[in-house]
Amino acid sequence: MANVVVVGAQWGDEGKGKIVDWLSERADVIARFQGGHNAGHTLVIDGKVYKLNALPSGVVRGGKLSVIGNGVVLDPWHLLGEIDKIREQGVEISPETLMIAENTPLILPFHGELDRAREGVATAGTKIGTTGRGIGPAYEDKVGRRVIRVADLADPTTLAARVDRALVHHDALRRGLGLEPIDRDAILAQLNEVAPEILKYAAPVWKVLTEQRKAGKRILFEGAQGSLLDIDFGTYPFVTSSNVIAGQAATGVGIGPGSIDYVLGIVKAYTTRVGEGPFPTELDDEDGNRLGTRGHEFGTVTGRKRRCGWFDAALVRQTCAVSGVNGISLTKLDVLDGFKTIKICIGYELDGERLDYLPTASDQQARCKPIYEEVEGWSESTEGARSWNDLPGAAVKYVRRIEELIDCPVAMLSTSPERDDTILVTDPFED
Prior knowledge:
Blueprint (H helix, E strand, L loop, with lengths): L3 E5 L7 H9 L4 E4 L8 E5 L2 E5 L12 E4 L7 H13 L9 E4 L7 H13 L13 H9 L12 H22 L6 H16 L2 E2 L1 H10 L4 E4 L25 H4 L10 E7 L2 E3 L12 H9 L12 E3 L1 E2 H11 L3 E5 L9 E10 L2 E3 L6 H6 L1 E8 L16 H14 L3 E5 L7 E3 L7
């Protein structure tokens, strides 16, 4: 039985939630391996909408174990609020169905304050476009060895020492930004109050997942954001604060890379981006507005309008290589219905030179001009198609051309937000 990693292969918002939910029905364990509550999954099941930020997508499926791994940074107050909200929708969540790695770092209120303050004083062209929820500062504290982890909540003496260490750093930063010092006693009181509720879900995730794998259980690994926001391989510095690519799945829960059998890349049939940074195929015209309107392109977390553009095959080929993608799930094909012609970016022109990949240097990325190939569009509807025979011939040709250009096969094709509106070509769990 295969264990599957699902990664976004663009800038996020590719429709991972639906695909993870579709796969989670057949998985035994669903593990979140990176990111924070700055990303969102929207699941539509039997017409009912679930919006998740911190919780793994598998929580809406009964009889599954959902895991928050150590690669995640976790806001404990947000998590408990999200659990309450999902419970109100009729979903059962308990320590038997949800597990948090004991070594998971916590996002504290002062992380969000620092995040927002830094964005507020950033000059034009240097704003990252963060959600202001403290994810970046929490990851900084993790590598700076001053973060508070879930296990620390169990011992008041250790917890106080961890808070003191963090405050030495943060109060110095806050002075420079004109912020008041952190109230130590208030933070400790907040943490001690929330500790019992969080600790009931705490467990040695690495050990549990090792045992699950030995028992032949299917594990589905899900991340947040998209590969082009990876801290190492994304469009730096306009990236997230963690590794997003598939290799992080092993580190982010504490199992070896040999536990990963199949990597499924989620790819939108066009391209979108939220926030700042380079976007070679971005459209500031009627076609771009049409993609945004038809695709309902607004961020799940922020509500911000997403920037839209044509499909960038050069970028997706690059992200598929970096994550070792075995097959892609192509989503939102129906958004392209009605276009007479559709463009696909096949490379870039940079200072008179042709490139088939996006360069690393940010100044070069900003100067890259897309090289397009035009393909025939289709007037018929693809919405809700569940077999190749339901698709117009031109739509099939478009999908096949994408496969050729990204050097990766289409394993699944999604034609609406409904989970059953999916064409399965290759089953990742059985490949």
